[in-house]
From TrEMBL:
Protein's name in the database: Oxidoreductase
Domain Ketoreductase intervals: 5-184
Gene3D superfamilies xrefs: NAD(P)-binding Rossmann-like Domain
Presence of keyword Oxidoreductase: yes
InterPro entries per record: KR_dom, NAD(P)-bd_dom_sf, Sc_DH/Rdtase_CS, SDR_fam
Length: 251
């Protein structure tokens, strides 16, 4: 087993975030978890009492990033990695029909909260020559009708990862697209996206769910977890789909 690491994980109560946390805990690592709902975080704390600290909080509040960093340093003394996994999909509206205020709210959730946490933890990650792993999306590089807010926010996240890579040579920063994963976000897409998405796109997503071909959260979750533990510096500044050959040793 690799030497135990201290890793902050956002969006950790369900889906990919929960899969990441579970993978790391089973491997003996220490985690600081956050999500809005505390129930699942408390369950993990009870199951792994010496390995888990958690904070039930809203990542869009500026103080949350500071509290997470301080929680990690108080209980575990250092930070080896930060996995920025939280995010939101809505509003799913075409640009002509959109609300700028809704776009700003989504950018707060998907980008500015990520930037805040990255900035807050960079000094600690410099000390450990640590890693920043961002959960991105295929929508960052491919456009879907009515996904403008989500896709552009994830594209900004990819570019943030690249900037950290060039500015912080002692930190390895990587963005990972998890593919079409069977999570609550996919359910939201199926239930709310039909009105504004292109019919062919909505049908394609719905068909994958009906046929059981969506990716399980544990598949990209394990890759993201392994990257947080041991991503090599030569990966820094790059974005990958979770299952590409370049990441074979993390799969």
């Amino acid at each position: 087993m690799a030497e135990p690491q201290v890793i902050i994980i956002t969006g950790a109560s369900r889906g990919i975030g929960l899969a990441i946390a579970t993978h790391l805990l089973k491997a003996g690592h220490k985690v600081v978890l956050t999500a809005r709902s505390p129930e699942k975080l408390e369950e993990l704390k009870k199951e792994y009492p010496s390995q888990v600290q958690y904070l039930a909080a809203d990542m869009t509040l500026p103080a949350t990033a500071y509290k997470l960093k301080e929680l990690a340093l108080l209980h575990f003394n250092h930070i080896n990695a930060v996995i920025i996994n939280h995010g939101a999909l809505s509003p799913m509206t075409r640009i002509a029909n959109s609300s700028i205020e809704e776009w700003k709210a989504l950018y707060d959730a998907n980008f500015f909260s990520a930037l805040t946490l990255a900035k807050e933890t960079i000094p600690s990650l410099r000390e450990t020559k640590g890693r920043l792993i961002f959960t991105s999306s295929g929508a960052a590089i491919g456009a879907y009708t009515a996904w403008g807010a989500y896709g552009t926010s994830k594209a900004a996240l990819n570019h943030l990862s690249k900037h950290i890579a060039v500015e912080e040579p002692d930190i390895t920063s990587v963005a990972i697209s998890p593919g079409r994963v069977d999570t609550d976000m996919q359910k939201e897409l199926r239930e709310k996206g039909k009105a504004e998405m292109a019919p062919k796109d909505h049908e394609a997503f719905s068909k994958e769910f009906a046929e059981g071909t969506l990716v399980r959260p544990e598949q990209p979750g394990s890759v993201i977890a392994n990257l947080a533990v041991s991503a090599k510096p030569e990966l820094s500044g790059k974005n990958f789909k979770w299952n590409v050959p370049e990441l074979a040793e993390y799969q």
